[in-house]
């Protein structure tokens, strides 16, 4: 059952700010993702070889690597929601390899089965496929399983995200609820894709680059951040190699740092939810 903790409240708050077309867009995306995931889980549970390989892979991974797998899963899940609020920093959701997806889906299923019945996984590993198969069929027949239609697909999404975020913050002993974060460099792919614009004479007199405090000469090409702030290319490239935020307004660009990226996406949701007074 879903606990209404702050994580859940923030995600629900962000969902509540979506317009009906955005909500139906998101539901559509989540439905097709959930079908894809179900197909993968069914293949895992019906193929002894694939199942054994995936279990062996999970066993070979350290706790840190398992946390990374779950974190990447969180990032691609958060992406679907966050891009509705920040189309400016749209970066394609990270591609997940099929074997990583299988590993993370099996890991989550194992966690769920364990939570449901802590003794279930005491059985020898050879029995796990059968046990999980039974557990999976049972959950498919519950409310959030049936047909995974509109409302229930959103409920499962919120539940899954809450569970994973809680896991990641426990493992990394960090809280994504807090606004403070470590400094992380902006993602290289995003930085190279930033547009170059020509400085034009405007009403406001000469424009200054806040990094070097020097004027940006008219008709010179400078870098425009998604928040519309302008900087000398040399200055901003050096800046973004250390942090992913705009020096003027702290607008955050995507980062390749897994936990930094979760933090960034989380802040996007937290901001929209708190702006509307929903958290
Ligand atoms: Zn400068
Ligand atoms: Zn800015």
UniProtKB/TrEMBL annotation:
Q: Where is the RING-type domain?
A: 209-250
Whether Membrane counts among this entry's keywords is: no
Q: Example GO molecular function term?
A: ligase activity
Query: What's its catalytic activity?
Result: S-ubiquitinyl-[E2 ubiquitin-conjugating enzyme]-L-cysteine + [acceptor protein]-L-lysine = [E2 ubiquitin-conjugating enzyme]-L-cysteine + N(6)-ubiquitinyl-[acceptor protein]-L-lysine
InterPro entries to which the protein is assigned, alphabetical:
Znf_RING, Znf_RING/FYVE/PHD
Q: Which UniProt keywords apply?
A: Acyltransferase, Ligase, Metal-binding, Transferase, Zinc, Zinc-finger
Annotated GO CC locations: amyloplast
Known EC number: 2.3.2.27
Q: Does the keyword Ubl conjugation apply?
A: no
Q: Name one GO biological process term.
A: gravitropism
Pfam families in UniProt: zf-RING_2
Source species, domain of life: Eukaryota
Which PANTHER family does this one have?
E3 UBIQUITIN-PROTEIN LIGASE PRAJA, E3 UBIQUITIN-PROTEIN LIGASE SGR9, AMYLOPLASTIC
- UniProt-recorded name of the protein: RING-type E3 ubiquitin transferase
Q: Which organism is it from?
A: Rosa chinensis (China rose)
């Amino acid at each position: 059952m879903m606990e209404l903790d702050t994580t859940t409240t923030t995600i629900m708050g962000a969902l509540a700010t979506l317009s009906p077309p955005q909500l139906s867009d998101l539901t559509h995306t989540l439905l097709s993702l959930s079908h894809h995931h179900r197909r993968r889980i069914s293949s895992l549970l019906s193929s002894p070889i694939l199942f054994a390989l995936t279990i062996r892979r999970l066993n070979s991974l350290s706790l840190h690597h398992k946390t990374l797998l779950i974190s990447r899963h969180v990032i691609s899940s958060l992406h679907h929601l966050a891009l509705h609020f920040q189309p400016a920093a749209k970066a394609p959701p990270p591609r997940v390899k099929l074997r990583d997806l299988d590993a993370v889906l099996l890991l989550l299923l194992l966690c769920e089965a364990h939570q449901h019945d802590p003794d279930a996984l005491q059985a020898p590993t050879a029995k796990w496929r059968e046990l999980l198969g039974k557990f999976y069929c049972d959950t498919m027949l519950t409310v959030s399983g049936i047909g995974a239609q509109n409302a229930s697909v959103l409920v499962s999404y919120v539940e899954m995200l809450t569970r994973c975020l809680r896991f990641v913050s426990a493992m990394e002993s960090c809280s994504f609820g807090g606004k403070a974060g470590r400094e992380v460099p902006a993602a290289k792919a995003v930085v190279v894709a930033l547009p170059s614009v020509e400085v034009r004479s405007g009403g406001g007199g000469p424009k200054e680059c806040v990094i070097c405090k020097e004027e940006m000469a008219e008709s010179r090409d400078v870098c425009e951040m998604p928040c519309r702030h302008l900087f000398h290319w040399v200055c901003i490239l050096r800046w973004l190699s250390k942090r992913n935020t705009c020096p003027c307004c702290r607008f955050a660009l995507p980062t390749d740092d897994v936990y930094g990226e979760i933090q960034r996406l989380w802040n996007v949701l937290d901001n929209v939810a708190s702006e509307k007074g929903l958290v």
